[in-house]
Amino acid sequence: MRDRINSAMKQAMRDKEVLRLSTLRLVMAAIKDRDIAARVDGVDNSVSDDEILAILGKMIKQRKDSAAAYDSAGRDELAAQEMSEIEIITDFLPKQLNDNEIEDVVKKVISVSGASGIRDMGKVMGLLKSTYAGQMDFGKAGGVVKNLLG
């Protein structure tokens, strides 16, 4: 995953794609920050692809929040830039599940985990996050879990 982002960053430099390059630099900086935070007693504990997916998901959520704030403030050009950055980051995520697929996956995880009530929601969400990181909106998934368990 890290190599793919690096390659895309180099290609953006060659193609002189300013927005793509700056967005990919921000992604690499976030990954590097997590690498540094994971370093223990000088031992290099590079982040895994799953952690990179989590970083990308967090960056997308931040940009969605910013775009919504810019929209409400009438700053359409800044909202458009945030949305462009979301598109660039999304290129590195696996295919996103649609609403029907999310519901099917949640039903499967509920049956596999043996969840029987709303008190098991944390267990179901934990399994979803470990198995489907970067593939679904966990806010939507949480609503589906709550409906099915509630």
Structural class: mainly alpha
CATH architecture classification name of the largest domain: Orthogonal Bundle
CATH class division of the largest domain: Mainly Alpha
CATH topology grouping of the largest domain: Hypothetical Protein Yqey, Chain: A, domain1
Assign a percent range to the helix content. Answer: over 70%
Q: Strand-and-helix sequence, N→C?
A: HHHHHHH
Biggest beta sheet summary: none
3D architecture notes:
Helix 1 runs antiparallel to helix 2 (18-38). The chain has seven helices and no strands. The protein has 150 residues and is mostly helical. It folds into two domains: 2-90, Uncharacterised protein YqeY/AIM41, N-terminal domain (Hypothetical Protein Yqey, Chain: A, domain1); 99-149, Orthogonal Bundle (Arc Repressor Mutant, subunit A). The longest helix has 24 residues, at 49-72. The model has no long low-confidence stretch (mean pLDDT 90). It is globular, with a radius of gyration of 18 Å. The chain has helices spanning 2-15, 18-38, 49-72, 76-90, 99-113, 121-131, 138-149. The protein is 75% helix and 0% strand.
